[in-house]
């Protein structure tokens, strides 16, 4: 059966799965027998225990009468059948014929987006927790970190019943998904203090008369990532437009409030000037106050992680894609974080081998006023955001003058390029080696040879000096997400087999002439794209059945990507796979097979010898180049 037919069959099956997921029915196992043939023909073995089929069948017969177990029985028997017999292509034809009309009359991509936007199984963002707004309701644990504006402490509720969880909370979802209980002591400590409270430094304890309003005004912009801040700060800060909703890759804020200053035992030692006891005050408010932000607690910063953890290129790409998803979301809502450094990227993971869930944090320098333009009339204006070394070239080289403005639309996207270097090589070249003010694109250091070619090209395009030539975070995130597709052995070949290579190249050529081939080819072209997206969806949905193979972070990433993606951006991102010159080389394919990838240090060499490789969803496949340099999958015996 041709690849086209397979992808059509997979589309149909994905549709079945989608409608099932949408109706929140229990489990997808009933549909697995129908999706198996497609997986089988594409060479994907569903990873179940290597129990002899006869046992499966006897157990199957035994429990067949019990309706509760019926789906699992069918699953086991179907697995056996499809591994034993050769199926004829015709078997799928009636199914394809019957459903083709129905499927393609609907907008398949729209259906996919709806499922991933609305289903709590893939999106724990739909859940929220209401926490109290008084400092006395919290008990504090260890000190987590400190910057110029705040100190952050681990915290828990004095009375856990104060927390009102709406829908299944993060921890409940995590526990269902986690195959093993947390096994290290720090994890137990983290669970004991699940929140992080940011205590903002108030350096104006003598401004008695103005009251809480002054604090909200001077510290409120810290809440640019908190959707409820729009209401809290209405009438207090003009033109303040925080993010309108939560996002999995933006730090999760539970609540924020102003209350009496809590003097922590280590406060005098760590931040004496932020206390009301600082020597320069002649008079102070009778009750010194400050703002508190209660957040979900994360485990580590990206800066610490890259120096303390082994990771392979696959993990690196999943982290970069999450970062780009955050940038795309911020850009969609006119918010620029403006201080994208690795201390401000937080990671959550339960055990050391798990791929971390990544969030962008610290919105203290954020621009959130519904516009990208900032006035820059005097050189000493202090409104261009965070760290000088992580400013995009268009910001770093801006000159002040009457009526002059700086545009921040692509600033975070550029900074993500520098962070990508930190993820893949540990070193951000803009800290030491080159300057954001005058670097040449040709001076950018080489990325590791074994990194997937799409990731290399994306990072190069993120760091374009001209913001108009820079790749948008949406397209960059699409390209990395597509490169993480596990179906088949080689994603580029799969996309080509589905007919996307010629279409993508035609589209790219036509774009330079200002026309769109895709518009002309219309339904045919988009059907090919929908087929690929349906395969990706099917793979994502079935991944729920194998949580040990696809990490929580990766599953969440897929859901974020599938709920955001648009056809136009997808076509543009295919350019990374099908440039006339782009050939798949064995090195870049090596990173598709995590079990073969060495753990790498800054030079791509092995960091730790005893590190356990990531599981591969295609454990029986190897990738070997032929004499033309084209890589084929070879099934090991
Ligand atoms: N939700 C969290 N979970 C765990 N640790 C956190 C959390 N938020 C912040 N931290 C830790 O606290 C440190 C300081 O936090 P943050 O960067 O928000 O402070 P800041 O004063 O605004 O910093 P800056 O000087 O960069 O403006 C972080 O680098 C991180 O180590």
Automatic annotation (TrEMBL):
Pfam families: Pkinase. One of its GO terms (biological process) is regulation of apoptotic process. Keywords: ATP-binding, Kinase, Magnesium, Metal-binding, Mitochondrion, Nucleotide-binding, Serine/threonine-protein kinase, Transferase, Transit peptide. Residues 601-629 are annotated as: Disordered. PROSITE patterns: PROTEIN_KINASE_DOM (PS50011). Residues 138-485 form the Protein kinase domain. It catalyses: L-seryl-[protein] + ATP = O-phospho-L-seryl-[protein] + ADP + H(+); L-threonyl-[protein] + ATP = O-phospho-L-threonyl-[protein] + ADP + H(+). Its cofactor is Mg(2+). One of its GO terms (cellular component) is mitochondrion. Its EC number is 2.7.11.1. It comes from the Eukaryota. It is found in: Mitochondrion. GO terms for molecular function: ATP binding; metal ion binding; protein serine/threonine kinase activity. This is non-specific serine/threonine protein kinase. The lineage of its organism: Eukaryota, Metazoa, Ecdysozoa, Nematoda, Chromadorea.
């Amino acid at each position: 059966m041709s690849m086209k037919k397979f992808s059509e069959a997979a589309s149909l099956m994905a549709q079945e799965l989608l409608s099932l997921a949408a109706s929140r029915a229990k489990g997808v196992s009933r549909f697995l027998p129908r999706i198996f043939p497609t997986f089988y023909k594409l060479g994907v073995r569903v990873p179940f225990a290597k129990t002899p089929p006869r046992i499966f069948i006897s157990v199957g017969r035994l429990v067949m009468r019990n309706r509760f177990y019926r789906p699992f029985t069918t699953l086991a028997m179907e697995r056996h059948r499809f591994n034993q017999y050769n199926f004829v292509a015709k078997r799928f034809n009636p199914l394809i014929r019957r459903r083709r009309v129905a499927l393609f009359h609907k907008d398949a991509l729209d259906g996919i987006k709806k499922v991933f936007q609305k289903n709590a199984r893939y999106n724990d963002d739909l859940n929220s927790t209401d926490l109290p707004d008084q400092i006395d309701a919290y008990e504090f644990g260890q000190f987590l970190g400190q910057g110029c504006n705040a100190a952050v402490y681990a915290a828990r509720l004095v009375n856990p019943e104060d927390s009102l969880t709406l829908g299944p909370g993060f921890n409940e979802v995590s526990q269902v998904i986690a195959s093993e209980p947390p096994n290290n002591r720090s994890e137990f400590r983290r669970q004991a203090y699940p929140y992080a409270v940011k205590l903002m430094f108030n350096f104006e304890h003598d401004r008695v008369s103005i009251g809480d309003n002054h604090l909200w005004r001077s510290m409120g912009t810290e809440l640019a990532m908190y959707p409820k801040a729009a209401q809290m700060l209405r009438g207090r800060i003009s033109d303040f437009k925080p993010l309108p909703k939560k996002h999995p890759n933006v730090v999760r804020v539970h609540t924020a409030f102003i209350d009496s200053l809590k003097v922590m035992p280590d406060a005098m030692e760590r931040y004496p000037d932020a206390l009301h006891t600082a020597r320069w005050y002649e008079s102070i408010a009778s009750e010194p106050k400050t703002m508190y932000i209660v957040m979900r607690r994360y485990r580590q910063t990206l800066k610490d992680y890259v120096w303390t953890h082994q990771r392979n290129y696959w993990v690196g790409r999943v982290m970069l894609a999450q970062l780009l998803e955050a940038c795309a979301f911020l850009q969609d809502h006119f918010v620029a974080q403006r201080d994208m450094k690795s201390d401000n990227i937080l990671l959550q993971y339960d055990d050391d081998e798990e791929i971390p869930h990544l969030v962008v944090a610290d919105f203290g320098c954020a621009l959130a006023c519904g516009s990208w333009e900032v006035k820059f009339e005097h050189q000493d204006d202090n409104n261009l955001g965070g760290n000088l070394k992580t400013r995009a070239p268009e910001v770093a080289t801006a000159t002040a003058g009457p009526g002059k403005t700086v545009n921040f639309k692509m600033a975070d996207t550029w900074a993500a390029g520098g962070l990508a270097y930190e993820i893949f090589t540990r070193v951000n070249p803009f800290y030491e080696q080159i300057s954001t003010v005058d670097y040449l694109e040709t001076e950018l250091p080489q990325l590791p040879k074994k990194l997937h070619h799409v990731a290399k090209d994306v990072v190069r395009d993120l760091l374009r000096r001209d913001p108009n030539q820079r790749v948008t975070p949406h397209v960059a995130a699409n390209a990395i997400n597509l490169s993480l597709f596990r179906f088949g052995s080689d994603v580029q070949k799969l996309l080509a087999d589905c007919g996307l290579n010629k279409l993508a190249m035609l589209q790219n050529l036509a774009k330079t002439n200002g026309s769109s081939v895709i518009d002309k080819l219309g339904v045919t072209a988009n059907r090919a794209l929908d087929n690929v997206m349906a395969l990706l969806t099917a793979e994502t949905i079935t991944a729920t059945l194998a949580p040990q193979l696809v990490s929580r972070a990766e599953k969440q990433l897929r859901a974020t990507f599938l709920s955001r993606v648009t056809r136009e951006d997808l076509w543009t991102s295919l350019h990374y796979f099908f440039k006339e010159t782009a050939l798949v080389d064995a090195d870049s394919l090596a990173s598709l097979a995590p079990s073969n990838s060495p753990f790498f240090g800054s030079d791509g060499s092995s960091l730790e010898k005893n590190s356990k490789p990531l599981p591969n969803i295609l454990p029986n496949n190897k990738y070997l180049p032929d004499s033309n340099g084209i890589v084929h999958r070879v099934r090991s015996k």
